[in-house]
Amino acid sequence: MGANNDYNSPSFKKLLDSLQQQSWELELIISGFAIFGLFTAYEPLRIETVNAENEQQIYRFVVYLILQISCSILLFNLLLHVILRGLWIGSLGLRYVSGDIEFEKLRYSERFTKYLQKRIVSFDRYIANLENYCSVLFAISFLLIFYVLAMTMIILSIVLVANFVIESDYLPEGLSSILGVVLIVFIITGMTLTFLDFLTQGWLKKKKWTSKIYFPIYWVFSFLTLSFLYRPLVYNFLDNRFGRRLILLLVPIYIAILMITSLEYRNSNYLDKDQQSSSTFANKENYADMLTEDGDFPGKMVIPSKVITKPFLQVFVPFSDNLENRIFAYNDSLTPEIDRRGLSTSMKVTTNWSDQITSARQKDSIRKMYLRTFNETHAFRIDSLDMDEDFILTTGINNILGFETYLNLADLEEGKHLLRLRRKRKEKDKVKTVTDVILPFWYFKN
């Protein structure tokens, strides 16, 4: 390692001191570009989060939710940083013109003069405090992203233990249950102690008897939460009183922002615009011509419009994980030995082409049985008239996979009608028919 990169060398320390003095310029440049990029990315991230939630893709939902939360934290902190840094630059300009505060020239009473001198002390102190807030806030913005990542890793650990230990088919039933419960209790206990240590800013590390108990948990969670990546930054904050106070101050601020953003004004005691479609309400998620925004996700069933003027009605039912679970519950022969849903890769390495062709033919046969089962379990009723049309698989609105069919309306009278999607389900040894969706529409002949 060269002398210029040796952190113990005087020249390196001198370089850091020089960069430290000019860091505000880099902070503003990075903040400006970051804010522009975050504002651009926030809406697409929100849309992807909503789409993943509606499609019930839990892994994709978690990833986009983390990105959206991180984006929100960075936006708030960096905007606050730019405002404070702008105030700091303005204060420097004012100091150049006006110098320090001369309380005598204000000619206030002795009581107010002493109070203001005690509170303000000097204009230079005010500028120094602004500088400290700006520098610490900029650094803590990125530290908080690591905290979000750490929390996510802990939640994922609990989910993985539940899926691959407690529900494992490779371990004996008793052993998997005992081992899974022990691991989950350890993770929850460690998570609680780690959070308590964070709130108390290291109280568990200070006492001799608690440190002996807490050290193994701390060692494990340093890997589980990836804290080894940002540990120096954390302890540099904690050894500074100003940094500790700012970290604790931001926690209630974030809670307050979360509560404020969750507030909504209700206009009616009984009416709600987020109701599901019924005989008395038509939600826009069920009508294709009303899904105008990129973030609009189709509901359980979609028709072209509230007003139908053609002698046929196009119906689209989006695919979802729950829908597949219902198919498996009705026809258990379709249930695979290994559920391959979730994250997977499309990269496959094989040299046995005959096996690959055989596998493709088997999948095609299963797909046909899958579609037959769906058609067997789903049917329509318009008012009191039963209709049974076959669905086909297709990619519909916003390239979403689903099932599509067309209903014949040639003999239907003009006016308002109710379209019901009816589904068969097995309950013990019986088959019961339930109504999944009710959509109102108007039919008028051209």
Secondary structure blueprint with pairings:
Elements (H helix, E strand, L loop, with lengths): L9 H12 L1 H32 L3 H41 L4 H4 L3 H11 L2 H44 L6 H27 L3 H4 L1 H17 L6 H8 L2 H21 L45 E2 L3 E7 L2 H10 L22 H25 E5 L2 E3 L4 E4 L5 E8 L6 E13 L2 E14 L3
Parallel strand pairs: 1-8
Antiparallel strand pairs: 2-6, 3-4, 3-7, 5-6, 7-8
Helix pairs in contact: 2-3, 3-6, 6-7, 6-11, 7-9
- What number is the mean pLDDT? 80
Q: List unreliable stretches of 5+ residues.
A: none
SS field, number of helical segments: 13
Q: How many structural domains does the protein architecture include? A: 2
Count of individual beta strands: 8
Through-space gap between termini: 83 Å
The gross shape turns out to be extended
Order of helices and strands: HHHHHHHHHHHEEHHEEEEEE
| Proportion in helices | 55-70%
Percent range for β-strand residues: 5-15%
Please compute the radius of gyration using only Cα atoms. 31 Å
What strand order characterises the main sheet?
1-8-7-3-4
Strand-pairing-aware structural class: alpha+beta
Description:
The protein has 446 residues and is of the alpha+beta class. The chain has two domains: 12-167 and 226-262, no CATH class; 284-335 and 362-443, Immunoglobulin-like (Sandwich), CATH 2.60.40. Helix content is 57%, strand content 13%. The strands form two sheets. A five-stranded mixed β-sheet has the order 1-8-7-3-4. A three-stranded antiparallel β-sheet has the order 2-6-5, with no helix packed on it. A hairpin with a 5-residue loop joins strand 5 and strand 6. Helix 3 packs antiparallel against helix 6 and helix 6 (123-166) runs antiparallel to helix 7. The longest helix has 44 residues, at 123-166. Keywords: Membrane, Transmembrane, Transmembrane helix. The chain crosses the membrane at residues 24-42, 62-84, 133-166, 178-199, 211-230, 242-263.
